[in-house]
Amino acid sequence: MAFDIEDYLSVKKALVDRELEALLADGSKSPARLLESMRYSVLAGGKRLRPILALAAGEAVGADPEKVMPAACAIEMIHTYSLIHDDLPSMDDDALRRGVPTNHRVFGESTAILAGDALLTDAFGMLVAEGIRRGVSERVICEIVSDIAESAGSRGMIEGQAIDLALTGTKGVTLPEVERMHALKTGAMIRVSVTSGARIGGADEYQIQKLASYADAAGLAFQITDDILDIEGEGNLGKERGNDERRGKSTYPGLAGIDESKRIASELTRKAVGMLEGFDHRAGALRQIALYLGSRNH
Amino acid sequence: MAFDIEDYLSVKKALVDRELEALLADGSKSPARLLESMRYSVLAGGKRLRPILALAAGEAVGADPEKVMPAACAIEMIHTYSLIHDDLPSMDDDALRRGVPTNHRVFGESTAILAGDALLTDAFGMLVAEGIRRGVSERVICEIVSDIAESAGSRGMIEGQAIDLALTGTKGVTLPEVERMHALKTGAMIRVSVTSGARIGGADEYQIQKLASYADAAGLAFQITDDILDIEGEGNLGKERGNDERRGKSTYPGLAGIDESKRIASELTRKAVGMLEGFDHRAGALRQIALYLGSRNH
Asked: Tens digit of pLDDT per residue, chain B (298 long)?
């Protein structure tokens, strides 16, 4: 039976959605508005790419998906907090995200800031408490908390966002600068999604290195394709087309041209798939995800 | 030789300051402006009450202070992030903090938000990496990460800040509402400072319970004294007097009167000290800190 990537993604997405819904269930202790604001953004949809990558990487080394889920969901909560804060008036000042009004447009700026702060904080607590409850070892939990904090912190995702703000509207930005910005802003969290799932599955350091390289290549291919879709896309992105250019964001296709960008994305996809050579058939989903990310049209 | 609390506090503060300075040293990898903004607020001073409480609680059960320090500094970093975000224009819109311009007034709003996010994220990563390096067990580190996230998250400090924003300017706020807001907004992090230090020292659950009650009583006494100083204080607070009233903040002395508030603060101090009865002379610093917090005049 042929592997159907769209089917795989939608099955895993449903599992992740169900977990996130349960994790953010109303315990009716939090102030209603704060929890509502957190739920609004987390449950607004999204592809769940990061948690699915964590699950697929776990699968590649035989992890129990139940044990991977807390890390997968923690990473998605951290990703969501970053979107809420990036959309704020003092940052990108976005009105729409995933086809619906951004968090601060619905709940106001102060609640949006607090909802982001809370998702980031709760993600670490949940990862530890739920990980231990499901039998992940304390050693692996410590490794993952440390990796995620590094990837999300002042030398990872937040550094990427700071660079993005600094480059926006700047003339003469170079391709290496854009690449470094992407590697930090999106790449670091995509890599830690993959390595976290693998660590929970007991991967050795050689496997972790290969999977990290897989994630770096697939993550950049994903970002380049995203930028191309912003120019060529058929709507359906939940945001307007041509956003990047209007805002003075330097992009891959803007600097290298669309054809060259497509060529680089294909090459990165091939590289990502090549990193999986030493793995057995259980890495099939990771392989298909890389091919999908480098060639998707929505 | 008599125990000199002012001397104790200043010696410990210097140790904490030195650690924070080293932890936030310029590795010249972070974007200069982001790191500068983080350093500005963390190194702007402050009493370092939370890290000192962690050290003193560790002392009470014989902890190695070197092992307590990462948790102590992580809590101070999280405290600092909360001050940066609380001061933002959409929150309390403060111009001064600890006698100097607030972070967003110096670095702009987007950098202030990112500096807060980065301090929160880096705190968790540093706590784990540095804790392990200094020989704290992975089990204790997991307990502390979980406790701190719970105390700082959507059911702790952030819930307290959300309640504070909701109560500000509201008429007919009751004393129990103000007390609950304080318990969440400041109390939870003060409690986790004490329990983290104690856990690292190997305290048993009975000792943790007693120390948590100590922290709850001493923390509220501290907050009430703070509110009284806002009315009666002699300047030197690093902010203007009468701030709370001008902003429509309900306070303990505002609702219960100054004399009754002083009486309650004394009673809480007695209660805090009483919780230390089963501990030996090594709890002397905790005892003196409680007495100091309940009666300080600056």
From this structure: 678 999 999 999 999 999 999 999 866 555 689 999 999 999 998 899 999 999 999 999 999 999 999 999 999 999 999 999 999 999 999 999 988 999 999 999 999 999 999 999 999 999 999 999 999 999 999 999 999 999 999 999 999 999 999 998 888 999 999 999 999 999 999 999 999 999 999 999 999 999 999 999 999 999 999 899 888 876 555 555 677 777 788 888 989 999 999 999 999 999 999 999 999 999 999 999 999 998 876 5
Angle between helices A188-200 and A138-152 (to 10 degrees): 170
pLDDT in tens, A99-125: 899 999 999 999 999 999 999 999 999
Q: Give residue B40's identity as a one-letter amino acid code.
A: Y
Selected residues 124-153 of chain A with any CB under 8 Å from a CB in chain B: 124-126, 128-129, 132, 138-139, 141-142, 145-146, 148-150, 152-153
Distance CA B235, CA B239 (A): 8
ipTM for the whole complex: 0.95
From chain A, the residues in CB contact with B113 under 8 A are 85, 88, 90-91, 113
Residue A25 forms contact with B (CB below 8 Å)? no
- Residue B216 carries which side chain, given as an amino acid letter? D
Q: Which residues of A touch B126 (CB under 8 A)?
A: 149
CB–CB of B123/B77 below 8 Å? yes
Q: Which domains does chain B have, with CATH numbers?
A: 5-293 (1.10.600.10)
For tokens 């819930």, the residue is: B159
Q: What is the pTM of this model?
A: 0.95
Stretch 38-97 of chain A: residues touching chain B, C-beta under 8 Å: 38, 81, 85, 88, 90-91
d(CA B47, CA A53): 44
**B9 and B288 in contact (C-beta within 8 Å)?**
no
Contact A125 B114 (CB under 8 A): no
User: Cα dihedral sign for A190, A194, A200, A205?
Assistant: negative
Cα–Cα distances in Å, from A67 out to A58, A132, B131? 9, 9, 24
The whole-angstrom separation of Cα B218 and Cα B229 is: 16
HEC letters along B86-151: HCCCCCCCCCEECCEECHHHHHCHHHHHHHHHHHHHHHHHHHHHHHHHCCCCHHHHHHHHHHHHHH
Cα–Cα dist B31/A162, whole Å? 7
A128 contacts in chain B (CB < 8 Å) = 142, 145-146, 149
